[in-house]
Amino acid sequence: MFSQLAQPLRYAEALLEHFSRLAGLTESHNLRQGLVEAASLLTGCELSQLYLLDATHTRLTLTAEWHQGHWHIRENASLPSDYHREQLLQYCLCQNQTLAIDALDSSLHDTAFLPDSSQPWRTLLCLPLLSEAQHVVGVLLTASMQPLRLGSFSDSLGLLGNFVVAQLDLLQRVGTFQPAETDDLPLDKACPAGYGLIGESPAMRSLYQLIGKVLHNPVNVLLTGETGTGKELVARAIHDYGFRRTRPFIVQNCASLPENLLESEMFGYRKGAFSGADRDRSGLLDAADTGTLFLDEIGDMPLALQAKLLRVLQEGEVRPLGSTDTHKVDIRIIAATHRDLKALVEAGTFREDLFYRLSHFPIELPPLQERGPDILQLAHHFSEQACAFLQRQPCRWSPAAESHLLGYTFPGNVRELKGVVERAILLCDGNELLPEYFSLHGTVDTNLNLRERLEQVERNLLIESLRRNQGNQTNAATELGLPRRTLLYRMQRLNISPAEIRFREKADAR
Prior knowledge:
- The chain is 43% helix and 14% strand.
- By secondary structure, the chain is an alpha/beta fold.
């Protein structure tokens, strides 16, 4: 063994010997066991452990342990994704920081993940392990019952651990990787329901891969995509399966409140800050402290408030309205928008510096029409939910009804599909869903010629725009990029009646 007083030359020679031995191993379990044995021998510690994240970054598993001169295999070695009781591992893994404790105190530090021993554990060294892309993929830990100073070993053990991680990745890519019994399957087999989301299309598989990259990396995430694609569900999945899952998840729609009210809601205020402020009140940033704040429709946030949010992202500081003092908060920001933020930056309505701060890791959600068979899977799910809510027997799906859905483009995406299915359940008198129960205004009759098809598509687009704007022709014309007179002419030409526009309003009222 080597103590803290070992000569540097002898230590360097021993380190090179371990590098050479590990380089010749071609099986994953031998590499993992070789690493923990080497870490124990080089530091003189009685214990060395290797923890690795699974493919989805939702589970940390003890994959190798060297204890008192022997390899050990412990049952139930997988830890939950928040590692809340394993605060030392959590800090090292989630903050990408080396942790060296020379005076380990069980009354101050939770050491339940360490094996039982007759003497207390006195020193500990915990190192994050990085992939080739510099993502944290695991933790290497050494601990001793002796008063050792382990911090000096961090650089050499870090190099050794990262070397083994690279070797494991190489074995996996060349096809000789043999997973241990505690290892998870790859994402395409282990996560068919992807973080609580529904869909197995290639577009959703790519989405699951991106989600897995940010679960345990404290970076800001920007969710983009068309309205109705489920951005809030993805934000909640990142929170629920990430390292902050036991902490608050706070949601605020930036388009739902006027500027002054949104500012006080987010930052809080002090008594007397404005008329009606009769007491101190904490804001959403304080409520989300140690957790996640999801800012929906971030593109609609006023410019003045964008500057204050930028301060929070840069310094982690919050100053309530009416106060001259600031205080620190630890929050993760997930923002979402269906608008083109780059275009807003060019137009001067969105701060460029805030855009770059928010978009450290952009994730674009696919529209429903690109998800193929997911449409039917989602439709069946919404059908079962609606039937359970109405306390009725599940409805069967006729092949014609399924074909009817697959032939529609769903401009409103998943949100529109949910509404269409729920309405069909209400209209269904028997126990079988038929095409006539689905109100799909965008379907095209294949018996029409090209001109008639184009007119039908244009008609549907005009009707949908008018319905979204509650029949306001000026707003609909602006949305479509048309003069109002042109819109009125096209409405008359395509025989669009006011009754067709009011139909959606009555249905929404029901």
